[in-house]
């Protein structure tokens, strides 16, 4: 192990995923230590030498913001320990919904996070299904932007649904849903929604014929589940045979679990970019492992090989 040129370590928010990525890559997870003081402040340390090594740090930056801070501190620790190159693997890139100035006097949080990661010493970022593609341009270092479609499409094909229809729960996801529909050779429907305040859907309508179809809603994030479950209920009201949903990042905050359990959804398929909350799992949620995708891309990166074949669709 001491002669291995790679060190893969994980923050506390993605410890299990990091361990699976390391296992798939073929190396043990590098030991780290997370110490919390009585006032809530914490300290991180890398417990193995990383001098002259390729260091991969796995950490999703979902709330609380301590997860982001821990990632930054691990990057700083690796840099000060003379790592050769530091790659941040961020399966879920938090603050990605703050990608533009859409109101007076608001911050562009995604750009701020990109600046912080670069300042900390990150040499490269690997992430999956950014909420907005343009966030890649916020970084001054290379970004490998992977797509959950590489995981979801094989699963959808294995279901062998005869009357498959791809749908998007809002107009913002039209491009993503269209890519799924084009790949699978099926039609697409759109839900048009209006909001008055964040996380609350004021009205929604369906554009397209969903009667008799096995509908699959495609989205990148499921937060409170309000939009997704409302769209699923509307699909059933318009005659859909069944309604499933695929969402890359299972944020699942607030009443999300209860909404999913009582909704018309047959199944919600997510990745393990964010671990499900303890004690709140429901039989309707299917979790697909994304560790193989990340470990393969890391291997290609180290060996200077192309990763374009791992995108599947964009």
- Low-pLDDT runs of 5+ residues are none
Order of helices and strands: EHEEEHEHEEHEHEEEHEHEEH
Mean pLDDT: 91
Q: Helix/strand-derived class?
A: alpha/beta
User: What general outline do the C-alpha atoms trace?
Assistant: globular
* Residues in helix, %: 25-40%
What is the count of distinct domains? 2
Would you give the CATH topology of the largest domain? Answer: Rossmann fold
Largest sheet: 7 strands, mixed
Q: CATH top level of the largest domain?
A: Alpha Beta
Number of strands: 14
- By DSSP (H or I, 4+ residues per run), the number of helices equals 8
**Approximately how much beta-strand content do the residues carry?**
25-35%
Q: Taking strands numbered 1, 2, ... along the chain, how are they ordered across the largest sheet? A: 10-9-8-11-12-13-14
In whole angstroms, how far apart are the ends? 37 Å
CATH architecture of the largest domain: 3-Layer(aba) Sandwich
Cα-atom Rg, whole angstroms?
20 Å
